[in-house]
Design goal:
Blueprint lengths: L1 H34 L8 H25 L4 H8 L1 H11 L2 H17 L9 H27 L4 H22 L6 H12 L1
């Protein structure tokens, strides 16, 4: 969560959606440079899966950063983990999975320290949306990973996610996206 803690510091300059654009944009550039993914040999269905994965990446990151703007990092991450937890319960299909999930949910409630009534409702909604997107991220990643070699599918999905984030990031951050200090810290967030 080091990257997220740096991103939060840039919210006053670039906004949460500007940070999503920087994170996804620099991540896409880095992954393209490292993987040099091919474009041939894939069906329309494979490319559709990459497109869905890219939209999920952009949405998950956007909702997570919007939640971080309103909630502490620990609370946001705790709520977001509910997405993969719910997916693991469904995938397990066993009664004991519900016991473990109940214990995990009790842990989430305990971590809030009884302060759920003091949490920003919209922030919680954003975090729950990010949780749902994280579950979809896992499913999308598996589909794309099966169709593309190595990190190729992720690289292309990151490009699509960055493109989806462009209009939102530009509106949120404006000219701050051209500042070298903001760009450098955005690149650091992407690397982390």
């Amino acid at each position: 969560e080091v990257g997220a803690s740096i991103a939060v510091l840039l919210f006053p300059e670039a906004g949460p959606l500007g940070m999503v654009l920087l994170r996804l944009g620099f991540s896409a550039v880095i992954l393209l440079a490292v993987t040099r993914p091919g474009v041939r040999g894939h069906s329309r269905r494979d490319w559709a899966a990459v497109a869905v994965f890219g939209v999920v990446l952009a949405t998950m990151n956007g909702l997570f950063y919007l939640a971080l703007e309103r909630l502490p990092l620990g609370v946001t991450v705790t709520i977001e983990v509910l997405g993969p937890l719910a997916l693991s319960i469904v995938a397990a299909g066993r009664a004991r999975a519900f016991v473990w999930a109940g214990l995990a949910l009790a842990g989430v409630v305990a971590l809030a320290g009884g302060g759920w009534d003091r949490l920003d409702g919209l922030g919680v909604a954003f975090a729950l949306g990010a949780a749902a997107m994280w579950a979809l991220y896992i499913l999308s990643s598996a589909r794309v990973g099966a169709a593309f070699a190595k990190l190729d599918g992720l690289a292309w999905a990151m490009v699509i996610g960055a493109l989806v984030a462009v209009p939102f990031g530009v509106v949120d951050a404006g000219a701050a996206l051209l500042r070298p200090d903001v760009l450098a810290l955005g690149a650091a967030v992407a690397l982390l």
